Structures are given as C-alpha cells and as structure tokens.
Amino acid sequence: MPHPIMFDDADPVLARVREIALALPDTTEVIAHGRPTFRCGKMFGNYGGSDKGSKVRHDQSILFIPDEAERPALLDDPRFFLPAYLGAYGWLGLVLEEKSDWAEVGELLDASYRQIAPRRSIAKLPAPD
C-alpha cells in the first residue's frame, strides 16, 4: 500500500524549497514516503518531517544533512529539530514559513548537496564562500 501524500503542491513554502533545490546541478525531485525529496543520486533534502520520538509533524520544514562542524550550533537554535528516522543518520530539520531566511535555506541545502553529490555535479557549482 503506497504512503498517503503529505504535502500540497500549491504550498508556497514548498515552491521556494523546490526553486532552491532544483537549481543545484543534476538534481531531481522524487516523491518518497508521501513527501517530496531532492536528490543528486542520493537524497540531500526532504520536505516535511516530524520530531524524533514524538508525533509532532512539521509539514513545512526541510530535512538536510548539516555540516558536522555546524551541527551543535544548529541544534541550539529552536527552529531546528532532530527528525524521526533520518535523525539517526545525522540529518536535521528546519521549520519553515513564508518569511523564512531563504538565503539560509539555500546555504543548508547547498552544504547537504555537497556531501552526497558526485564530484562531476559539484564541479558545476561555484566555489563555496
């Protein structure tokens, strides 16, 4: 039995996330477990998630692989959460809204992408700041 769809294609926050994620080289969007995921071979972003160990859902959020050096600081920020399932593999989630800092979202997705993308795809990106 397939997972139920847990997002609205008309969601303006999802539209912004798509714009950022799909601008990265060789990225595709795949619906998995009822949610949009962003991949370059492997997954680097997931739209929507829930808190690990609870049933609290964050339908407007992005799950990503943080830079390990930034992880402790991100976890100290209340906008970030440890997601169910993917949190055990080092992923974090960021709760989003229309007035989110979209440059920050772009930086987080870029860092996540650079951790999983093949070298030939990363070579298509400008050097990080």
From TrEMBL:
The lineage of its organism: Bacteria, Bacillati, Actinomycetota, Actinomycetes, Mycobacteriales. InterPro entries: YjbR-like_sf, YjbR/MT2646/Rv2570-like. The keyword Plastid does not apply. The keyword DNA-binding applies. One of its GO terms (molecular function) is DNA binding. Keywords: DNA-binding. This is MmcQ/YjbR family DNA-binding protein.
